[in-house]
Amino acid sequence: MNRVLSADTSPDAYARQLDAWRAMSPADKLALVREMTQAVLLLEREGLRRRHPTLGPAELHQAAIDRRLGPALAARVYPRAPR
Fold first, then answer.
1. For a tag site, which of 39, 45, 55, 65 has the least CB within 10 Å?
2. 3-state secondary structure of 83
3. What is the pLDDT of residues 12-30, one digit of tens each?
4. Is 70 left (phi over 0), alpha (psi -120 to 50) or beta?
5. Quick check: 15 and 5 in contact, CB under 8 A?
């Protein structure tokens, strides 16, 4: 794989990043992915909260699920009472 992940990453920096990832243990890679996933979910939740400041925690949770899965699939996977 010769292409970089981002247009603002130099080939040298990208090669170093790949080397660092390759040197990580599977457990360390999993921990890194978990941390990044948590960061993305927090950013998603904060974005929803800012766009819909009147929603409570349960409604924000539902809005996040609807956003990720789409309302139709979310309703099938997480059945709930009509709003």
1. 39
2. coil
3. 999 999 999 999 999 999 9
4. left
5. no
Confidence at 78, pLDDT banded by 50, 70, 90: confident
Write out the residue range of the structural domain in which residue 69 sits: 25-77
Residue 19 belongs to a domain: no
User: Is residue 45 assigned to a domain?
Assistant: yes
Residue 27, helix vs strand vs coil = helix
pLDDT at 32: 96
The CA-based dihedral angle spanning residues 42, 44, 46, 49, taken in that order and rounded to the nearest 10 degrees: -140
Give burial (CB, 10 Å; 0-12/13-18/19+) of 36.
exposed
